[in-house]
Specification:
The complex is a heterodimer of chains A (about 400) and B (about 450). By secondary structure, chain A is mostly helical. Chain A folds into 3 domains: about 35 residues, no CATH class; about 140 residues; about 120 residues, no CATH class. Chain A is built from 16 helices and 1 strand. Chain A starts with a helix and ends with a helix. Chain B is α/β, with parallel strands linked by helices. Chain B folds into 4 domains: about 150 residues, Rossmann fold, CATH 3.40.50; about 70 residues, OB fold (Dihydrolipoamide Acetyltransferase, E2P) (Beta Barrel); about 90 residues, Ubiquitin-like (UB roll), CATH 3.10.20; about 70 residues, no CATH class. In chain B, the strands form 4 sheets. Chain B has a 7-stranded mixed sheet, with helices on both faces. A 6-stranded mixed sheet of chain B has the order 2-17-16-20-18-19, with helices on one face. A 4-stranded antiparallel sheet of chain B has the order 3-9-8-5, with no helix packed on it. Chain B is globular and about 65 Å long. Classes of the chains: A mainly alpha (about 400), B alpha/beta (about 450). At the A-B interface, strand 1, helix 3 and helix 16 of A face strand 21, helix 10 and helix 11 of B. Strand 1 of chain A pairs antiparallel with strand 21 of chain B, so a sheet runs across the interface.
């Protein structure tokens, strides 16, 4: 530790302005601040500062993602061996190990691509490397199917960072959640690799050794195709023993992350709660319509409203994507409206749009775009109140 | 009680080194004293004396070049030892060496009741006591040509390690009452005194006549004058409210009771690096070295005149600020911490639960001056609101200040806030933005635009 510090102090001058490694200043700074909290002291305003910083905030979100990541790795192996009819013979480690080896390259691809671009931009624009990609780099793998080719991960990440973040002025200035943007980019550019029944399970597309009658369809697909008899049980969906994107299947793992985010104060519980309320309210309305009109052909009118919470990417989206403070509404009142509308639109797109089986991604992106508008009206109300007071 | 306010938003920062309730009567009459023009925003000082001139307590040392009626007088008698200048010959300090004689100029105020508003103002201006009166908006010295809609006094200070006013004021009812009577001459509105509802209200406050005695309960910034104004009589554009610290009001009281500028006050010496934190009887502008001698720990320290949230950094041998009633000594944070952002952090205080220090809610922390992170864009939302007990959107107002959009600042409530109202936001800010500097700059900008 002391040796490392001495070494960093020794090589630091060559990264400074005029040093021979000046081009790598941002990289050096990122590495140095990764190992050591800087020795800078307050020079104006409050002499003391809270121990929290952006690195701590982001690492907490990454930690909150760990349960979903670990479960996702296991689930990849589970479904792979289930497909081959070999699950009963495999040990836990073999199952997890298989998934681990499938997921790890995607995570590495995402981080290497994103951080490289961030460091280059930081160097050119002469600012510190922002920590936002700590989280985005983990989110991107978790919302992709495990069969996504590595080059697609690289392409999507590059798109998200350059067009989604840097084009708007860097971390903190972006309008859309970068990870979701990466997902949306792939979804529209390469729909065949992002949807259908074959993409969710490693090895299913090749068809080798697949046992008879095995389907890789997600619960959302079953509902969309009106195959309610094939729909997984609520508990399977809640625990996550279903096909889906790597990190999104286990509502339980996500819930653990959500509790962690709320307790540490990093994630907004208002967005999460209002998102759930929005989903349930429209879900219940559809359920009620389904009860009085039993002949409706759409299966979304015949499932319990709370199924929406455990199917597809809803839980993951509302906990980890919708709560991104940069792209969400920024006022506390606005957050209630923002979350609620995400829930409404997610159900609306799922149930009434024939083109897209999953609505959460589009619902969040839509509300990202509306977030400033929501804030605008919340703040206008505050301004009006102040003006009214002045007249009296 | 006319106003009984409850706030829930805010934060008491549990700092180590609270002053023990014991008043040390040091040999503080001797030594050096200073008037620092830098204590007053937007002031261009012009000296009335030359170095080496003799000066009496209450005698004018300098005045504001733009408003010559604003005079600043010596708190003690002695010699003007030096005029310390900084960059571009800006005057930083007028240092006066006390002769320990306490030779004061006599102001024959006569019977207060018989005096007109203008005559009262005249005495306050001539004696150099006027600058203790400050105004909102803008947190500057009250403009003597205004008549404020109300005058506010906060009966307590809720900032970290702040002195206990009930303790300090005890026994000084006569001077305080006289001070209130003087204030009553200056406004047609009410004089609001707001006390802390978390403790039994002391007899001191209930014995004072001519005031609206309000109470407020809740965490810091409950004691901030801005918080109290917002909840009692919020400021609108064009309105002015004056405020004064209770100890400074005693100085006004003494002028009219004794006819002299008696700037003695009791201050708290606090902070984790003070060996014996306690109260000291001293005089405005006193040099702090006598207080700190043999009373601080080894190592690099930050010396602060005022509290750690809003105070001014001073040197080991510098002077107490004009408006300050507290000297705080905390450790300097000039060190690298290995993986500091990743450790459990049992000894790190955070408003969030992101460090495990929340496991010890009763613990008092030693917080140093390290920024504890890098400066970033304002990314995290919803936190400032948790420590900002006003119906104002702090983040949006701050952004309006950053882009210098005065129109938008007005709409969002700039007239109700000053630097100290953003101190807690600055403290908890994840992006380490220097907010109080931004607020001060914006207020100065508006003052400049209005003239």
């Amino acid at each position: 530790m002391k040796g490392l510090r001495n070494y960093l102090d020794k090589i630091k001058p060559s990264f400074k302005k005029g040093g021979k490694l000046e081009k790598f200043h941002s990289l050096f700074d990122a590495m140095e601040t990764l190992f050591f909290v800087p020795n800078k002291v307050t020079t104006s305003g409050s002499h003391i500062r809270d121990a929290i910083d952006m690195k701590r905030t982001m690492i907490i979100v990454v930690l909150a993602l760990v349960p979903a990541l670990l479960f996702g790795m296991w689930n990849v192996g589970y479904h792979h061996f289930l497909m081959l009819g070999q699950y009963a013979d495999k040990t836990f480690l073999e199952v997890f190990g298989f998934g681990f080896l499938k997921v790890l390259p995607i995570v590495i691809a995402s981080y290497v691509t994103g951080l490289t671009i961030e460091i280059i931009f930081a160097q050119v624009k002469k600012h510190d490397v922002p920590e936002g990609f700590f989280v985005s780099g983990m989110l991107i793998p978790l919302i992709l199917p495990v069969t996504t080719p590595i080059w697609m991960v690289v392409l999507a990440t590059a798109f998200a960072v350059i067009i989604g973040v840097e084009a708007f002025g860097g971390a903190g200035m972006n309008i859309f959640n970068p990870a979701l943007l990466a997902r949306a980019f792939l979804f529209f550019a390469y729909p065949a690799q992002m949807s259908g029944d074959k993409v969710w399970i490693s090895g299913l597309a090749s068809g080798e050794g697949v046992i008879d009658g095995f389907s890789g369809a997600t619960p959302l697909a079953h509902v969309a195709q009106n195959e309610l008899s094939k729909l997984a049980s609520f508990s399977d969906m809640f625990y996550g023993f279903i096909p889906g994107s790597i990190g999104e299947t286990s509502t339980l793992a996500i819930l653990i992350g959500a509790i962690f985010l709320i307790w540490t104060g990093v994630g907004s519980w208002k967005i999460m709660l209002s998102g759930v309320l929005g989903t349930l309210s429209l879900g219940l309305l559809f359920q009620w319509i389904g009860v009085i009109h039993p002949d409706i052909q759409n299966a979304y009118f015949h499932i319990p409203a709370y199924y929406h919470l455990v199917m597809g990417g809803f839980a993951f989206g509302i906990v980890f994507m919708a709560t991104d403070p940069v792209s969400a509404a920024q006022t506390e009142k606005g957050k209630w409206i923002y979350g609620f509308l995400i829930g409404i639109f997610a159900v609306l797109i799922r149930a009434l749009n024939p083109a897209y089986p999953e609505g959460v991604m589009l619902a969040i992106l839509l509300l990202n775009a509306w977030a400033s508008l929501i804030d605008h009206y919340v703040i206008e109300a505050n301004i009006k109140k102040r003006l009214k007071r002045a007249k009296i | 009680m006319p106003h009984k306010i409850k706030i829930h938003k805010g934060l008491n920062i549990p700092l180590l080194g609270k002053a023990e309730k014991k008043i040390v009567q040091g040999s503080l009459q001797n030594g050096l004293f200073a008037l620092k023009p830098t204590d007053f925003p937007n002031l261009t000082p012009k000296s009335s004396l030359k170095e080496g001139d003799k000066v009496k307590a209450g005698e004018v040392v300098f005045f504001d070049k733009n408003k010559p009626e604003l005079k600043f007088t010596s708190p003690v008698s002695g010699t003007l030892k030096s005029i310390v200048r900084g960059e571009r010959r800006k005057i930083l300090e007028f240092v006066i060496e006390s002769d320990q004689l306490n030779d004061s100029i006599q102001f024959n105020t006569g019977d207060l009741k018989a005096l007109s508003r203008e005559q009262v103002k005249e005495f306050l201006l001539a004696s150099g006591i006027w600058p203790y009166l400050r105004q909102r908006p803008f947190n500057i010295i009250a403009n003597a040509t205004d008549t404020p809609k109300a005058i506010f006094i906060s009966g307590f200070d809720s900032s970290p390690l702040a002195p206990d006013y009930d303790y300090i004021l005890n026994g000084q009812e006569t001077d305080f009452q006289k001070g209130i009577d003087v204030l009553a001459k200056l406004t047609d509105g009410k004089i609001h005194v707001t006390v802390n509802d978390q403790f039994p209200i002391s007899k001191f406050w209930t014995s004072i006549k001519g005031i609206e005695l309000n109470s407020i309960s809740g965490p810091h910034p409950a004691g901030n004058i801005g918080t109290q104004i917002h909840h009692i009589d919020p400021l609108n554009k064009g309105e002015v409210i004056w405020h004064i610290n209770p100890q400074d009001l005693l100085i006004i009281g003494r002028l009219f009771n004794k006819g002299i500028y008696d700037a003695s006050k009791i201050i708290a010496l606090a902070g984790s690096e003070v060996l014996k934190p306690s109260y000291y009887k001293t005089i405005a502008g006193a040099c702090v070295d006598i207080l700190l001698k043999d009373n601080i720990t080894e190592g690099n320290h930050r010396f602060i005149s005022g509290n750690p949230l809003t105070g001014t950094q001073i040197g080991r041998n510098d002077f107490l600020g004009f408006y300050h009633h507290q000297i705080t000594v905390i450790p300097d944070g000039d060190y690298y911490e290995f993986f500091g952002w990743a450790l459990p952090g049992l000894n790190k205080f955070s408003f969030s639960h992101s460090y495990f220090s929340w496991l010890m809610p009763k613990k008092e922390f030693k917080i140093d001056t390290n920024i504890k992170g890098g400066k970033r864009a304002l990314m995290i939302t919803g936190n400032f609101e948790k420590v900002f007990p006003m119906d104002i959107y702090p983040m949006q107002l701050l952004k309006a200040m950053i882009i210098e959009d005065i129109d938008l600042m007005e709409k969002l409530g700039i007239y109700e806030v000053v630097e100290e109202d953003f101190a807690l936001c600055e403290f908890i800010d994840t992006s380490k933005t220097d907010m109080q500097a931004i607020v001060r700059k914006s207020l100065d900008l508006i003052v400049k635009e209005m003239n």
